Amino acid sequence: MVRPTDSYTTEPHRVDPPTQGADFVVVANRLPVDRDTSADADPADGPVWRTSPGGLVTAVMPVMRAREGAWIGWAGTADELFDPFDLDDMHLVPVRLGTEDIHNYYEGFSNATLWPLCHDVIVAPEYHRTWWDSYVRVNHRFAARVALEAARGATVWVQDYQLFLVPQMLRAMRPDLRIGFFLHIPFPPWEIFSQLPWRSAILRGILGADLVGFQRPADAANFRRAVRIKLGMTTKDDVIRIPAVPGTDEDDPGTPIRYAVARHFPISIDTADLEAQAADPATIARAAQIREELGDPRILMLGVDRMDYTKGIRHRLKALEELLGDKRISNEDITFIQIATPSRERLDEYQQIRTDVELAVGRINGEYSSLDNQVVHYFHHSYPREEMTAFYLAADVMLVTALRDGMNLVAKEYVACRTNNDGVLVLSEFAGAADQLRQAVQVNPHDITGLKDAIQLATEMPLKEQRKRMKPMRAKLGHENVQAWSQEFLDALDTVADTQDELSERLHDRRG
Ligand code: GDG
Predict the structure, then answer these.
(1) In CATH terms, is domain 22-36+50-268+486-506 a member of 2.60.40.420?
(2) Whose CA is nearest to atom 19 of ligand 1?
(3) CA within 20 to 30 Å of 80's CA: 74, 170, 417, 508, which one?
(4) Is the pLDDT of residue 246 over 70?
(5) Through-space distance between the first and last CA atoms of the chain, rounded to whole angstroms
(6) Which ranges of 5-103 does DSSP label H, i.e. alpha helix?
(7) Where in the chain are the domains?
(8) What CATH class does 271-478 carry?
(9) Same topology for domains 22-36+50-268+486-506 and 271-478, yes or no?
(10) 3-state secondary structure of 423
(11) How far does the centroid of ligand 1 lie from the alpha carbon of residue 59, in Å?
(12) Distance 410 CA to ligand 1 centre (A)
């Protein structure tokens, strides 16, 4: 039989719930831990792990503690399978990835097909059937592992684009589960998404979830439109009507129907924790020291990004270079720190962006630096969290010029750290954070003239105006924090699962 491209087959199998499973399961490509291979770790004791603190961990920790939680994901090293272990009140279940999986599923389909496809095809996505086959296999491996770990009726929260197929696979194995899916990156318009040879399979994969969460309303709308166009399903507002058997006539009264909800849940940060760190005398002293070591520049500007072509680092350097050339800002006055943490370094496009950035930094410094002031300080490595907070505290102006970004937590972190309500955030309108941080100086980073005006405005903004903008943004992040985000998502997931009849009424209510 000829199998159409846009489908896949995996061994169909139902799995019985374990007798002692987890009531709450997070499944993500990566476990929130790093292996500590430093010399003092004794190999005889087995691997030593350190949690890698991130917003998601902070957000789900309380739920993990309260509800017998488990986290399922890859431990970050190739070809090694580790036993499940407990760390910092979490039960961690490693999934093995071999060298080929990393090449095809992770670097290939996830980061060289889906990532560029979901970020406005800033670079061309590559479509390889071997990568897709690997993606299907690895997603199945993750789903099978969850099916073995989750207690009867448990809540499973699937994270991000590496695991698009897990919700549907998991539902087939364990129909008793409540499944939520959250996409951290943008969902593209149909006109772009439709390039993907496996577009139906991906849409159906996601629709295995009861609740599908996105960063922005536009992402959710793009998804629902793709579902209408490609799968012919009916939607009303955020409700989607799904025939339980794919391909069956949804108007056949005998066909079982379920309802899923797809809408936005903008992710946020652990605001209180960042504020406390920023108010710590040690951080304040370190921020002052950073400025002093830089020769106390009149204006310190900062950029913090993974080294990624989506982040618009080249665009901001171009704007800076032109402003210096036009003498609209003085090289005596300005110091710019660009932290670009290493990312996906084996992919060509990432080597290219690094080369481009390094050339631009070299050119600007060659032209405009003096013995007294190096204009750009560029760091291609990561820093401890406390040091990052000190940078945020030291910087007068923060540049976030992403060409496309699901949310951009850096923008929110900068705002949270400005405990004196001063400082200026220049923020791309193409970052999800632009929906919440309305008082930022918003820019279209493709418009270099506009970007130059925005940077100049930021460097000249009176303190009164800075405070007028910063205050409401800080107040917003005070309550729109990552704890509220996870709470709202999980409450909504319960509601979807518990109110199928109401959702059916909503969808069929033609008056609304
Ligand atoms: C994806 C989506 C979405 C960076 N350098 C260092 C460091 N960082 C931290 C930042 C921030 C995080 O990494 C980066 O988060 P972003 O949101 O800015 O960007 P992505 O990595 O692309 O994340 C994005 C996010 O998922 C969440 O949903 O917002 O749109 O692309 O927290 O502070 N942290 C430390 N040292 C560094 O050198 N400690």
Answers:
(1) no
(2) 408
(3) 170
(4) no
(5) 46
(6) 55-66, 99-101
(7) 22-36+50-268+486-506, 271-478
(8) alpha beta
(9) yes
(10) coil
(11) 15
(12) 6
